[in-house]
Amino acid sequence: MTTVDQNAVLFERAQKTIPGGVNSPVRAFRQVGGVPRFVSKAKGPYFWDANNKRYIDLIMSWGPMIVGHANPEVVEAVQKAAETSFSYGAPTAGEIELAERICALMPSVEQVRMVSSGTEATMSALRLARGYTNRDLIIKFEGCYHGHADSLLVKAGSGLLTFADSTQNAPSSGGVPQDLVKHTLVLPYNDVAAIEEVFQKQGDQIAAVIIEPIAGNMNLIQPSKEFLSTIRSLTQKHGSVLIYDEVMTGFRVALGGAQSLQGVIPDLTCLGKVMGGGMPIAAFGGKKEIMSKLAPLGNVYQAGTLSGNPVAVAAGLKTLEIISREGFYECLGGQTQKLMTGLKQAADKSKIPFAVDNVGGMFGFYFTDQVPTSYEAVTKSNIEAFKKFFHLMLDEGVYLAPSAYEAGFTSIAHDDAVLAAIVAAAEKSFPKL
Ligand SMILES: Cc1ncc(COP(=O)(O)O)c(C=O)c1O
């Protein structure tokens, strides 16, 4: 008896009313090919597709689900909040509690403004930096993705790295005027000399440097200490705002984000993903002196009908409570490290060139001999091998990010039995490459 693939049925139907059948491009499986899996439900480290096939989830909604899918404590908090309406458009005590919690956890954040997505957080932080400095130029780094605001779609990572044909300083997307991206300077990640040169020439015109302090949108790439300290000292010297985009790394690589691991104090920090535990909420915050330029205090306008949404705040507060418990990050980081060691050993057995890296609950694996340190290096890894591996693992019930240019994510629900199942799947898959 042949069974109908319900994912294919849904994909065909979706494409009639949703462009490409998806509401965010990487979900479409364009790099790896094949039919996207349509999720029907999820629990802990697993989700089920439209055929009721179970997968071990290694993207966890691209980061947010750090306490596992449908965590009972978070579900209860959300249900309780929902009973008193979903939105008011007026302030609540919960927002203050969330702001206080974020300020206590993030070393550099004195004040915080809540928004509904990471894109809004970075877009607003940039506007604020420009308003604060009265300058236009911004610096971003190749392969870093900061959401889809116009001026940030230049040599951007994530879906854009997967799809776009980026040429130097051309927009990575249609619909972005050249006039807008001319204010965006793009430099290679981890290139100390390049940033020194730009600041020497144009330091007094640079409003902000925005960076993923551990890059996760060109696979996982870590910065060198020298790179970070050079950026911090040059921005300080020239009066530019240093924006840490911790939408991905915040509460994911450590309780205090990448900045707590690196000992760098940025001027502004963008947050999202984990801070809402899977609900649409994000934030940007930092020095009071800069944040006070925001409306209604200052002249930099920023607003949102659903900002600080009470149901999302409830999910965020409970998630932050759970991840603040003793031993959470030791466990999460330990499990992720164990997973990477297992994958590497499996690849070695089959003599496949393969490298791994992880920080906290975020990981990268690369079909190449060495862990890459730049966008250019990542694009030279064996993408064909990745694509094959992706599908072999999918057949074995392990859902990896459907692109070689994305980091992976674990959760506290990825216990030893789950890790063993992933490694067993890899041991079957590598010899078939
Ligand atoms: C580092 C970083 N910044 C910003 C964003 C944009 O966030 P959102 O997709 O919530 O708009 C992302 C999304 O993946 C991200 O990884």
* Major β-sheet profile: 7 strands, mixed
Spans of at least 5 consecutive residues whose pLDDT stays below 50 are 163-167
Per CATH, which architecture of the largest domain? 3-Layer(aba) Sandwich
Say how many strands there are: 14
Helix content class: 25-40%
Give your account of this protein's structure.
The chain is α/β, with parallel strands linked by helices and 433 residues long. It has 2 domains: 6-70 and 326-432, Aspartate Aminotransferase, domain 1, CATH 3.90.1150; 72-323, Aspartate Aminotransferase, domain 2 (3-Layer(aba) Sandwich). Helices cover 38% and strands 14% of the residues. The protein has 15 helices and 14 strands. It has helices at 6-17, 72-82, 93-105, 118-133, 159-163, 178-181, 192-202, 225-238, 257-262, 288-291, 310-323, 328-349, 375-379, 383-395, 416-429; strands at 39-43, 46-49, 54-57, 111-115, 137-141, 184-187, 206-211, 241-245, 268-271, 282-286, 355-359, 362-366, 398-399, 408-409. The chain has a 7-stranded mixed β-sheet, sandwiched between helices. Strands 1-2-3-13 form a 4-stranded mixed β-sheet. A 3-stranded antiparallel β-sheet has the order 11-12-14, covered by helices on one side. The two termini are 30 Å apart. It binds pyridoxal-5'-phosphate (PLP). Pyridoxal-5'-phosphate is lined by residues 62, 117-119, 122, 145-147, 158, 212, 216-217, 245, 247-248, 272, 282.
